[in-house]
Design goal:
Elements (H helix, E strand, L loop, with lengths): L4 H6 L4 H10 L5 H26 L14 H9 L6 E3 L5 H6 L4 H8 L33 H15 L5 E6 L6 H12 L4 E7 L2 E2 L2 E2 H4 L16 E5 L3 H16 L5 E6 L17 H9 L2 H6 L4 H23 L6 H9 L1
Helix pairs in contact: 3-4, 3-13, 4-10, 6-13, 7-8
Bound molecules: thiamine diphosphate and magnesium ion.
Magnesium ion (MG) binds next to strand 4.
Length: 338
């Protein structure tokens, strides 16, 4: 690679030019590769730190980890412009980070501090951010799917050019609202991409135990929505497929369903040891770790620079969160009266 990490990341390319460049080249631009690796690595390290904070009692409530699935969010978000929208899930840290979240505000929110994205009142499962057009995580399985369609309808009504990526998993695909949303999006040719993160489990239930048609991408065509299946552990593959779907949506051709096949690296949440998971299958998936797969595409020196920068950013974010105040009762009462 001829150019350095700093050279590439300091280039200021207007958003429209970036879009042209992404579509024009079939080989993945270095800047996109670096951005994806930054986000995969940041999500991995951020969550490993969150586990430590949880064990110290500094994070309360549920903590659903995205470990093993990081390439889906990183690949999908790399195909988006800053003003495109995403809708996240209860397993949403990777979505937030890949859409450009400020790690300080994320850490503070997860630790329930007043300086967090939602004033510390939402925690891990409810982060949203106007600054990055992240319409938010959702504790209700499947509820983000129609929210994404609503946002896409809003864009269409206003004559905008943005698109919406809705993240959800295999369990959510069995909610009735998924079929309704596919149909609605197809009828109105909405600029929405349904990103189905098939991690093969809904809590402890394997997808084969709950689903008649386990080739989940096939659910799309039944509703008039193209369905594509991609290796969700390969960030580059996810990026390329999403980019095509984004172009389709922007040009008014309507929605796409992408089934990204991936696997959790552990149980459903931080306190679930996941002993019901077949340990041989888990080992196979870990052997195809999305972080290692992407790192292998980068020069060692560049990967190390990205990692050093991210490690420092995470350390600063956690210090910020630890030193931030708890939300006050007065502020809380004032906000609900607004
Ligand atoms: C409507 C609803 N039903 C049940 C639950 C309890 N619940 C929380 S997460 C989860 C599993 C979701 O599985 P999936 O959609 O595959 O997402 P994943 O955890 O794999 O990311 C369930 C059943 C819920 N939060 N909302
Ligand atoms: Mg699942």
């Amino acid at each position: 690679m001829s150019t350095s990490w700093e050279d590439i990341m300091s280039q200021k390319v207007p958003a429209t030019k970036q879009a042209e460049k992404k579509v024009a080249s079939s080989a993945v631009d270095e800047k996109i590769l670096f951005e994806m690796y930054r986000n995969v690595y940041a999500t991995r390290q951020f969550e490993l730190q969150c586990i430590e904070l949880y064990r110290q009692g500094l994070i309360r409530g549920y903590l659903h980890l995205y470990l093993g699935e990081e390439a889906v969010a990183a690949g999908a978000c790399a195909s988006l412009e800053v003003d495109d929208y995403i809708v996240s899930t209860h397993r949403g840290h990777g979505h937030c980070i890949s859409k450009g979240a400020d790690l300080k505000l994320m850490a503070a929110e997860i630790m329930g501090k007043a300086t967090g994205y939602c004033g510390g009142r939402g925690g891990s499962m409810h982060i949203s951010s106007k600054a990055t057009n992240n319409l938010g995580a959702n504790g209700v399985v499947g509820a983000g799917i129609p929210i994404g369609c609503g946002a896409a309808m809003g864009i269409k009504v206003k004559g905008g050019t943005q698109v919406v990526v809705v993240f959800f998993s295999d369990g959510a695909s069995n909610q009735g609202v998924f079929g309704e949303s596919l149909n609605f999006a197809a009828v109105f040719k909405l600029p929405v991409i349904f990103m189905l993160e098939n991690n093969h489990y809904a809590v402890s239930t394997p997808v084969e135990f709950s689903t008649g048609c386990c080739e989940l991408s096939k659910i799309g065509p039944a509703h008039g929505v193209p369905g594509i299946c991609v290796d969700g552990n390969d960030a580059v593959a996810v990026y390329k497929e999403t980019l095509q779907a984004v172009e389709r949506a922007r040009s008014g051709e309507g929605p796409t369903l992408i089934e990204a096949n991936t696997y959790r690296h552990g149980g459903h949440h931080v306190n679930d040891p996941g002993l019901y998971m077949d340990q041989d299958v888990l080992a196979e998936w870990k052997g195809r770790d999305p972080l290692h797969m992407l790192r292998g595409k980068l020069a060692e020196s560049i990967a190390e620079k990205i990692e050093k920068q991210v490690d420092e950013e995470i350390a600063v974010a956690i210090e910020f969160a630890k030193n931030s105040p708890e939300p006050s009762v007065e502020e809380f009462l004032a906000s609900i009266q607004e």
